[in-house]
Specification:
By secondary structure, the chain is of the alpha/beta class. About 40% of the residues lie in helices and about 15% in strands. The chain has 15 helices and 12 strands. The two termini are about 15 Å apart. About 35% of the residues are buried.
Amino acid sequence: MRVLYLVLNPKADEMFNKISAGELPSDRMYGIPELKKLGYDVNFKCIRPQGFFRDTIKLFNNYLSLNLTDIKSIRNIVNCDVVVVNGPFCSMVTLWCLLINKKLVYLDSIMRIPKNILRRIIYKFNILFSSGVVVYSNHQIQKCASDLRIPSNKFELIPFTIDVAFYKKITEKESVGTPFVLAVGRDLGRDYRTLIKAMDGLGVKLKLVTLPYLLHNIDVEKDWIEVLKDISYEDLCQLYKNSLFVVIPLKKWGTDYSSGIRGLLEAVALGKKVIATRSIPLIEYIDDVDLVTYVESENESGLRCNIINFLNNKNELMHSNTGVAVVEKKYDVNVFATAFARYLQRLCDGT
């Protein structure tokens, strides 16, 4: 089986080499290294438009969600058995695969279902005329099938994954400085405004690993808040290990899709206790009250009470081997790759 991944990262070759060298977790390439180890013929090409009209095409793509692609990259589709688009839906690729009768799978493509009618039509077109769409939770399947009126058998549930071996190999360094609470997340579903309000005046430091645009109109110029943008994975792991606990705050609309799953799995895999917004997708992954405490979305007082409870019972925040075992058994990248390979093979065999 010849598999072609179409990815957004123009430096995918560099990333693959860093993964091979052990500098990055392999889950950043969504199963490519593991499929190669399983013996499959796997190649990857950047789908992002390049050249003089790149910025113009980007604006067009953002407005209509057509996601016009680099023509050179889709020429390679002819020589493969199955195409995996690792990113947003791409109508050009869908049409091309339809015309030349190639299997097409969308991976990590469904986020917030658009409200704009035209964008919803484009969304629906790409799902219906693909071979299948991989999603990360049963709730996602039910919601997409219902909202877009699409048969649920167009979706394949394969749980999200992290490279557990990468996180386990990093040795914890002694924490230096004041104790802190950690929040990690770079998607629009994060609710840092409520988190900051809930922690104001508690006398504990907050470290945010995120992007500046997610903090627009939020007052982070406080001496107890530190915002970290570009850090290495080793530094990120150290932050997890040295934190008192981890908070995953989500906006109400962010609870309908897979926002927060990576942060949840990373925190639990590194033995940390978590306070997270109640989200059906998150609960599907970890529902053990000894590992995660869930609070209602955008509930400042509820979040504050739970943070205070954690701070007052620091002896209960010790490293949890139970969580590490759960993540390794169910959500390790090798588990994902094996399930994904079976799914692709099934599509190719027509069974």
